[in-house]
């Protein structure tokens, strides 16, 4: 594919444009070289992309950029400067799904400082890569909203995470969900979602959030 041929030059260009991205990529590269003794079924760049994505220094910046890029094709083309990382993560997820097979799971993710607009029956998507926890391992304490997601689209990334102890499962930004029900009885608001399909175009409704503490949805 054309993107595969263009990838090395594109990655180098985007690393030069973003000092933080370059520093995180270098750190992830060093970490991956230490892990290499265990072998891998991903390419080195795919594995490094996953490591970089899970690092705190890049996570919020990248997710905010992905969320913004999804608003239009022009925004993606002209103002999104993580095309190489996005491509590598997508390829890594595809490869991991081939290796791991389809795993239908209950996943959870908590968010602080954001209230979400959603009604049962709505079709929504997060609009960013989402690293989630298995429901049975999830601690909801301190969260304002918790998403419980039923999906078969996630891939286990613990072997490629900067913090393997979290046992994270990654879902793609184009994955869509139907709001099953919402529970607001004490503790965090619970939004229960079931997988409804995938949309890689720009016409699907965003999962909209009202910001209450100075963060933007996409940073979660």
Describe the structure.
By secondary structure, this protein is α+β, with helices and mostly antiparallel strands. The protein folds into 2 domains: 2-100, Toxin ADP-ribosyltransferase, Chain A, domain 1, CATH 3.90.176; 105-211, Alpha-Beta Complex (Toxin ADP-ribosyltransferase, Chain A, domain 1), CATH 3.90.176.10. Helices cover 38% and strands 23% of the residues. The protein contains 6 helices and 10 strands. The strands form 2 sheets. The protein has an 8-stranded mixed β-sheet with strand order 3-8-9-5-1-4-7-6. Strands 2-10 form a two-stranded antiparallel ribbon. Keywords: Disulfide bond, Glycosyltransferase, NAD, NADP, Nucleotidyltransferase, Signal, Transferase. Its EC number is 2.4.2.31. One of its GO terms (molecular function) is NAD+-protein-arginine ADP-ribosyltransferase activity.
Number of helical stretches of at least 4 residues = 6
Looking at CATH, the homologous superfamily of the largest domain is: Toxin ADP-ribosyltransferase, Chain A, domain 1
| Residues in helix, % | 25-40%
The total beta strand count reads 10
Estimate the strand proportion: 15-25%
Indicate the structural class. alpha+beta
Broad shape: globular
Tell me about the largest β-sheet: 8 strands, mixed
Span from first to last CA? 32 Å
Order of helix and strand elements from N to C terminus: HHHHHHEEEEEEEEEE
Our Rg estimate from Cα atoms comes to: 17 Å
């Amino acid at each position: 594919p054309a993107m595969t041929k263009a990838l090395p030059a594109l990655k180098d260009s985007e690393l030069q444009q973003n000092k933080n991205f370059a520093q995180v990529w270098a750190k992830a590269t060093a970490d991956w070289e230490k892990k290499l003794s265990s072998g891998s079924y991903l390419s080195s760049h795919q594995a490094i992309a996953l490591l970089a994505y899970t690092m705190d220094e890049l996570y919020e910046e990248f997710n905010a950029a992905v969320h913004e890029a999804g608003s239009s094709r022009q925004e993606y083309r002209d103002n999104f400067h993580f095309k190489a990382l996005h491509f590598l993560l997508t390829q890594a997820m595809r490869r991991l799904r081939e290796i791991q097979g389809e795993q239908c799971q209950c996943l959870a993710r908590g968010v602080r400082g954001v209230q979400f607009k959603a009604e049962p029956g709505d079709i929504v998507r997060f609009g960013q890569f989402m690293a989630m926890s298995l429901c049975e391992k999830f601690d909801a304490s301190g969260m304002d909203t918790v998403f419980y997601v039923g999906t078969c689209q996630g891939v286990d990334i613990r072997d490629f995470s900067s913090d393997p102890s979290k046992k994270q499962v990654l879902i793609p930004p184009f994955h869509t969900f139907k709001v099953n029900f919402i529970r607001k009885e004490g503790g965090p608001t619970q939004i229960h979602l079931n997988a409804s399909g995938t949309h890689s175009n720009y016409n699907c409704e965003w999962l909209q959030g009202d910001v209450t503490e100075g963060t933007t949805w996409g940073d979660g």
